[in-house]
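New to this. Please check this fold:
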Amino acid sequence: MTARLVLLCSALTALALLAGCATTTPLTSIQVSPGTATAGAGDTAQFTAIGTYTNSKKGTQYTENLTSEVTWSSSVTSVATVNSAGLATGVSAGSTTITATDGGIAGTATLTVGGTTGVNTLTSITVIPAAGLQIVQDAGETAQYIAIGNYTGTPATQDLTDQVTWVSSDVLVATINSAGLATAVGSCPGGGITNITAIAPPSSGGAITGTSNLTVGSCGVNNLPTLTVYDVGQGSGTVTSSPAGIDCGSGGGCTGNFVLNSTVTLTAVPAAGSTFGGWSANCMPDNQPTCSLTMTNNATVGAIFNLAQ
């Protein structure tokens, strides 16, 4: 009997040691973006859930888009409802808390609904960079496009990059994915021009599009990827970068070259009478005055400035 007890204890000890050796990276927080939003009764507002995972033993941390994995809820369903994809729909005037939950971790945002149906109607889409501005050289080189929605209500400008349908008119020149990232195809010294079109999401209720183009030239060298920043919206502000290279004056846009695979941090400061409305979705976090991105290739970022209400 004593020998059996010793063997049993040894086995349990070994299992405990194995369990202790396993390392996991648990979800520690969820950030819902945008943090605040407005919509009219019958209008929609898209929310995104970004989860942060932290391994305290290794001192590592990373983020992941959990929008389609979390459980979404609205605190006041008579004001607005929200579906499993984070798309909220205004019902009646008031304010509600939109919550994204995964296990015991939750993130929240506030949605304010006006009483008038259609107060925030999409009227047009602006695609940036504009036609004639985006040129790449090598097959496989990428270019980021951004879709900015222009509305009749508040906010007047919203980033729709990950909500529109992207289309390239000539896929033998370049293709484009659902996130607005175009990729040059074919081989040098071939090239050409393809039209890049953003088609409004079905929830907008109309066939609204925005168009730009991409030029693929003959082979070249791209040792320093280009970052282009555009100030969009009815308001104005400045955008600077760290490391230095981007210094956009109020109401303008600018470009800078950065070392391949380096991380660039952008900071937005609204001008008097304006508010910062967020970054395009490729610069995270997209609802804070400061965001970061890694220069794996040419990149385009939109900074939204709205008029103060």
